[in-house]
Design brief:
Keywords: ATP-binding, Nucleotide-binding, Transport
Number of strands: 10
Organism: Methanococcus aeolicus (strain ATCC BAA-1280 / DSM 17508 / OCM 812 / Nankai-3)
Largest sheet: 6 strands, mixed
CATH superfamily of the domain at 3-83 and 152-235: P-loop containing nucleotide triphosphate hydrolases
Shape: globular
Radius of gyration: 18 Å
Number of helices: 9
Strand order of the largest sheet: 6-7-8-3-9-10
Distance between the termini: 32 Å
Subunit structure: The complex is composed of two ATP-binding proteins (WtpC), two transmembrane proteins (WtpB) and a solute-binding protein (WtpA).
Oligomer: single chain
GO biological process, one term: phosphate ion transmembrane transport
Strand content: 25-35%
Domain ABC transporter: 5-234
């Protein structure tokens, strides 16, 4: 796999303080890349830059070898699923179809895409249910479907299973893995769940206090961490 996303010296300031400090790493096309770290490490701030919601104060960001310009063409390549997704007060079908409707796709195309993605997430029989009435795990699947139906090249997820029970967490993880196999989507997720990192990711970056202190294949990070803070985080000496 070739490098698809590249960050160089990404720095973000807030009140004169560096909340992101010289972030650098590469992500390959079609891989699952996890950013792990304790709460407050800067993971969500970094995801918002990757999603082109916020701009860094310094640094450059490349997708597919092209420098990101924070315009509509790049934004169409990327979607972000937040930890607590908001459901529109409408049916599951309409929630998922929203992104296609505002892009003015034909009705038959929208119908086919929504039905396909509902099958992909295992909610084919839920299309007429009111989305706000669903359980937490079902809402997370709808949010994931809403992101995937527009066929993003990059899917970003912020603590995708933080509020879910183990069975729903595994269900979401399986959908993520199936998404890579089916669509070759590049997936970046932020989490403090070490077990999830080990189950899901191909590569991992450990983030601490706004810095990436170690990055590599997940196997190497967990079997032979180089940085002392990474060792402590993995061993449980460092709390979330």
């Amino acid at each position: 796999m070739k490098d698809y996303m590249e960050l160089k010296n990404i720095t973000k300031l807030h009140g004169g303080r560096k909340v992101l400090n010289n972030i650098e790493f590469n992500i390959k096309k079609g891989e699952i890349f996890c950013i792990m770290g304790h709460s407050g490490a800067g993971k969500t701030t970094l995801l918002k830059i990757l999603a082109l919601i916020n701009k860094p104060d310094y640094g450059t960001y490349f997708i597919g070898g092209k420098e990101v310009k924070w315009d509509i063409d790049f934004r169409r390549k990327i979607t972000l699923v937040f930890q607590n997704p908001v459901m529109f007060n409408s049916t599951v079908y309409n929630n998922i179809a929203y992104g296609l409707k505002i892009r003015k796709y034909p009705k038959e195309y929208i119908k086919k895409k929504v039905e396909d993605i509902l099958e992909h997430i295992g909610l084919s029989n839920y299309k007429d249910r009111i989305a706000k009435s669903l359980s937490g795990g079902e809402k997370q699947r709808v949010a994931l479907a809403r992101a995937l139906v527009i066929e993003p090249e990059v899917l970003l997820m912020d603590e995708p299973t933080a509020n879910l029970d183990p069975s729903n967490s595994i269900l979401i993880e399986n959908i993520i893995k199936d998404t890579v196999k089916k669509y070759n989507t590049t997936i970046v997720l932020a989490t403090h769940n070490l077990f999830q990192v080990k189950r899901l990711s191909d590569s991992t970056a450990h983030m601490y206090d706004g810095k990436i202190i170690e990055v590599g294949t997940t196997k190497k990070i967990f079997s032979n961490p180089k940085h002392e803070l990474t060792k402590k985080f993995i061993s449980g000496e460092m709390f979330y």
